[in-house]
Amino acid sequence: MCGIVGYIGTKPVVPVILNGLKRLEYRGYDSAGIALGGGESGLSIRRASGKLRNLEALLADDPLRGDYGIGHTRWATHGRPSETNAHPHRDCSGSLVVVHNGIIENYRALKEELSAQGHVFLTETDTEIIAHLIEEENTVARCNEDIDIPLEEAVRRAVLKLTGAFAIGVISHEDPGKLVAARSGPPAIVGFGDNEYFLASDVPGILHYTREIVFLQDGDLAVLTKSGVRFSNFEGKPIVRSPQHISWDPAQAEKNGYAHFMLKEIYEQPRAVRDTLAGRLCNASGVIELPEINVSPETFQSAQRVLIASCGTSWHAGLAAKFLLERMARIPVEVDYASEFRYRDPLVSGSDIGLLISQSGETADTLAAQAEMIAKGSQTVAICNVVGAALTRKAVGTITTNAGPEIGVASTKAFTAQLAALLAFSLYAAQSRGTMTPEEIQALSQDLLKLPALMETALRSCQPVCESLAEIFANASDFLFLGRGIHYPIALEGALKLKEISYVHAEGYPAGEMKHGPNALVDETLPVVCVATKDIHDPTSVLKYEKTLSNIQEVTARGGRVIAIAVEGDNEIAKLVEHTIYVPQAREVLLPLIEVIPLQLLAYHIAVKRGCDVDQPRNLAKSVTVE
């Protein structure tokens, strides 16, 4: 989950690395550091605890000079946040430094072995053993082979002894002018510029300098020099990796006048949904075409189940997909937390379709769930926001969500883009299985094309209301979120957004479960946010709405303060509740993408009123690339 940036080229090194780390600080912000090679002193390091600005202040007072370097922003796993535990980490002699994202599972055994050989460790981290292990490989080579092996060979020999997940960058003054990277698990990318080369753990870190990217695969080792990049595997065999062009505009990664990235990304949702749906809905012949998923209509026809696994916000999207697929394609769906999936020895067969959802495509638990599905014979499809990510490489096909880079740790536009992709997937499944007529598919496709405009309307109308409600409820200590059917996952997402960024305790519940416990929590201090939208043309939706009104009356009868999310024109609900936020009317299956907007805005404004760090909430990181 940490951020890594490396650079070798003709530009001043420190500004390039700091600029990249700023754009990756969403991956971790417990401490930061930078190391440069090629200067008068060989290797120079600066490290600081806390956010990146502390490192910037240190560099302003005590500058670094060099020709190439690596930097790191940390999300702590082994060892508390401190300057001592900040990366980069040195070996014993100080001849080389390492930055690392991931967890080394066998670090204790390696540390004992290295300590017995005379190595002295100064930190609480698992990363430090990597530096010492590389140093030891050099020492062994000198003793046994009577040679000084190149840095990449020492790195290659060292990583073969590591167990766990790692993406690393290494530089050494004994083998200058060289930056070595290796990947096994967490993401690592190499960027190609004009006589300059970059290393990063995510695209936004180098997007301002290049869009030509190689995504390192598991078992890849890269050597960056001023003359180019060489790739090999961990066995030392040269391999070819060709750059791919990333179409993201660098301006997408800037705030563009918004106070926070999260607010900017909330407002980018109509564009993200529009771009995700582009070219995927009914063509002139009225047919849904998703060739990129590489699953034939015949496979959908014979499929017995769809198994969905994902984490966090993506799990909420997966839960909503259960309602979509079962209603539209009439196929049973199971939804698992990816972190739990493989530990229950799940029943998976070749007749199941696995569906994995991840913004980054590098979420460790989701990758493990995918591996479990594949091992048991299931075809897997990925829904992912990053082209070339690990999840997509292991899937038979992918629906890419064209949300662009999402910088705020709390996901917003990636979530609605996932829902849009899942709608397209559900339509294709329904078409393949013959559970919707061509006319029904055509009509729903046309309504989907109108969805971004409805989301824009919701943004305009909900923004001032949510800001006013934040003034009223910013000091509440608890919230309850309710919803029925497909609106229940949206209630869960609303609760998650609030707790993530405002640190207010919030729970999401199915509205029908109030009598089974949650009613005990209701008093005059408890705000209850109820997703009470309806599709007036859908009898089932209207019935759910009427049941939800009964639940609202249960809450108000006990003094609870209800904030209702309702469709425009619903005057009945306003008579029952203290506050109402209206969103445009839409089909039942489209309402989740609209009704989540006021929940995001409410969480955002409450967090701002409480003085919280909206983009970088405590104890969280954007991409969870370790278990």
Specify the CATH homologous superfamily of the largest domain: Aminohydrolase, N-terminal nucleophile (Ntn) domain
Quickly give the CATH architecture of the largest domain: 4-Layer Sandwich
Distance separating the two termini:
10 Å
Which CATH class of the largest domain? Alpha Beta
Helix fraction? 25-40%
Largest sheet: spatial strand order = 3-2-4-1-10-9-11-15
| Estimated radius of gyration | 26 Å
Q: What's the number of extended β-strand segments?
A: 25
Please, how many helices? 18
Summarize the structure.
The chain has 627 residues and is an alpha/beta fold.
Descriptors for this entry?
single chain, 627 residues, alpha/beta, Glutamine Phosphoribosylpyrophosphate, subunit 1, domain 1, Rossmann fold, 8-stranded antiparallel beta sheet, 7-stranded antiparallel beta sheet, 18 helices, 25 strands, 37% helix, 22% strand
Structure, explained:
Helix 9 (312-328) packs antiparallel against helix 15 (487-502). The protein has 3 domains: 3-246, Aminohydrolase, N-terminal nucleophile (Ntn) domain (Glutamine Phosphoribosylpyrophosphate, subunit 1, domain 1); 253-436, Glucose-6-phosphate isomerase like protein, domain 1 (Rossmann fold), CATH 3.40.50; 459-616, 3-Layer(aba) Sandwich (Rossmann fold), CATH 3.40.50. The radius of gyration is 26 Å and the shape is globular. With 627 residues, the chain is α/β, with parallel strands linked by helices. GO terms for molecular function: carbohydrate derivative binding; glutamine-fructose-6-phosphate transaminase (isomerizing) activity. Its EC number is 2.6.1.16. It is an enzyme of class 2 (transferase). Homodimer.
